């Protein structure tokens, strides 16, 4: 075959060839994705492998099936006959070990083959890949990953937080619950009257409650305030719900972090391969850039244009680099002054968005809480509740348009233009959430004029502040989904009808909306960050996120096929998966901060929730440790002390420096090998 033939003198390394898109596509079309193993080649190599197999007495060479070797049929048959003849020299134990290993491999292979048919949206994603290429396919695969991640988080929170209460409420397994009693808490701090609907109400009131999380939803298991339970007794087993609530929060954050890192490792390796050498990038595009998964003629034409665009951009980037190198001092001063001025405009836009969100959030919370406490809910007050979500959505829509316009005047390299614009958009979207949370916490911890006495927080305005934060995250989640659905139904479809049925030159020049991968990824990462932050305050929010992304998959698929066109200038598919995960990791790190501050610093509500008897949510951990045996207490408290933390941090730093030095040594060896390959290539010409 093409990739298993004997390599000429001075050829590229095997590992590099296996990273090429054409090699990966060929392996995928043959139904296998395993890496090629080194094997003996040719009759001479086979003759060398036979005595090695005898010496190893049933080792790896003899145990490997003959079909795994890149040999011709005659040599494979010869190797198979040799392996079968060698079996009679083995002991019974090794014969049984070899047969059981072969049977286990066969069972695992068949199980893997069957399980591949159970993968969510397997056929749909393969169809999208065939029609539109791997770049757009990577977006839908990323969306599937988020659906699975949110579903696992939902199972985790439901199993350890919600399910024990359901079991005890129905008396299953002879279970009971112990409500949290107020211990040394002022009566004023325990007053909490959820905003339920009283008397005869209109139907639209229920719709408003559904969109805002108020009314009957506020007293359900959807929000933090429902879990005012200290202990669940299942038969004779005591289940500490506050501790389980806190540990489940740590578990879903740690699970998300590890899963993202695991998935990003493969993309990072591929990025290193493709970005190692500019000349290698040209070779990849010219000789191995075609995507053999494409079956649709339109997609093939699009791939042609994409490759042409990438080559044009590479050549333009080289010309621009030469132009940058030839700039005079006067030109450098002009372009640097212009960039400083544009960055001042960008900072002003960001500051305006942040200040607007802060003022609107403070105004909305004050009006809403005052009306709820006075039981004077009106249509205007209900509309005020949505002001933060509306302003955030407008900022997320207008800000990227301004950034895309300004970047044209900064005269950066094309690749850097894309990265800088995307990072500005990421910062805008994620910082908007941070400003919203800061606005809420500034109100919660507003202790002017002794508002926080004796509860430690503004209990008059926020008797159960965790549920209020959960409602804000819930509204952002619902509002984000409504905006995505509305854009598809009321903008993309009418535009498609106009372009299809109207021959006006202006409309034809306007054309169909492009399916921008980066913008769509930023949308779902924004929603996922909201889910990570809101899960602590609304334990069932991951279930809503799972359903939301499940529906968004079909909305985006329908939009891609019927109402939009693939981008003529897509981001490079080789680095898209890694970029998606890096931005997602930034969102997760941002989620750590508000959740950590809420757990460790802000006093927990005394009127609701599982931590009402603790000053902070974190206090349940040392309180639980005090119930352990004295020896175990000393060990755990010692691990949390500076005497353990400082040496542990030093050891971690030493290990990190060791691996950094090792990586540097490997990099130098790789560079030397590349230089040797170049010399060998030139020597072979003479």
What can you see in these coordinates?
The protein has 686 residues and is mainly α. 70% of the residues lie in helices and 3% in strands. The chain has 24 helices and five strands. The strands form two sheets. Strands 1-2-3 form a three-stranded antiparallel sheet. Strands 4-5 form a two-stranded parallel sheet. Strand 2 (229-234) and strand 3 (237-240) form a beta hairpin. Helix 7 (122-132) packs antiparallel against helix 8 and helix 16 (414-444) runs parallel beside helix 21 (573-600). The chain starts with 13 loop residues before the first helix and ends with a helix. It is found in: Membrane. Residues 15-63 are annotated as: Disordered. One of its GO terms (molecular function) is mechanosensitive monoatomic ion channel activity.
Number of strands: 5
> What is the number of helices?
24
The end-to-end span amounts to 29 Å
What general form does the structure show?
globular
How much of the polypeptide forms β-strand, as a percent range?
A: under 5%
Task: Trace the largest sheet across and list its strands.
Answer: 1-2-3
Average residue pLDDT: 76
Helix share of residues?
Answer: 55-70%
- What is the chains' assembly state? single chain
In short:
Keywords: Membrane, Transmembrane, Transmembrane helix. This protein has 686 residues and is an all-alpha fold.
